[in-house]
């Protein structure tokens, strides 16, 4: 964790900041993991960028047995 901030914000992405489905919606997905199309919610990039100015951020996403974890900042 970076020493920039003394607070850590942990975000659970699945069904809050993103939506994943095995069906194709009207627009193309932002990411494809196996058979799942992953769609970012509106303004999610701006939200995460703004939070990154105040907090260390850890985000977590689980897709079935696959788990992705990454940090911002």
Explain this structure.
By secondary structure, this protein is mainly beta. The protein has one domain (8-72). Helices cover 12% and strands 44% of the residues. The protein has one helix and six strands. The chain has one helix at 44-52, and strands spanning 8-12, 18-21, 31-33, 36-40, 56-63, 66-72. It has a three-stranded mixed beta sheet, with helices on one face. The chain has a three-stranded antiparallel beta sheet with strand order 2-4-3, with no helix packed on it. The protein is elongated, with a radius of gyration of 14 Å. 3% of the residues are buried. Mean pLDDT is 78; it is low at 65-73.
Given as residue ranges, the uncertain stretches (5+ residues, pLDDT < 50) are 65-73
Give the strand tally.
6
Average pLDDT, all residues: 78
Q: Structural class, from secondary structure content?
A: mainly beta
Q: What portion of the residues fall into strands of 2 or more residues?
A: 35-45%
From the alpha carbons, calculate the radius of gyration and give it in angstroms: 14 Å
- Domain module count: 1
First-residue to last-residue Cα separation = 9 Å
Number of helices: 1
> Quick one: biggest sheet?
3 strands, mixed
Shape: elongated
**Helix content bin:** 10-25%
What is the H/E order?
Answer: EEEEHEE
> Numbering strands along the chain, what is their spatial order in the largest sheet?
1-5-6
């Amino acid at each position: 964790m970076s020493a920039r901030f003394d607070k850590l914000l942990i975000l659970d992405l699945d069904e809050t900041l993103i939506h994943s489905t095995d069906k194709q919606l009207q627009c193309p997905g932002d990411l494809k993991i196996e058979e799942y199309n992953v769609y970012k919610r509106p303004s999610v990039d701006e939200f995460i960028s703004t939070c990154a100015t105040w907090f260390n951020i850890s985000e977590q996403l689980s897709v079935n047995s696959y788990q992705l974890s990454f940090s911002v900042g």
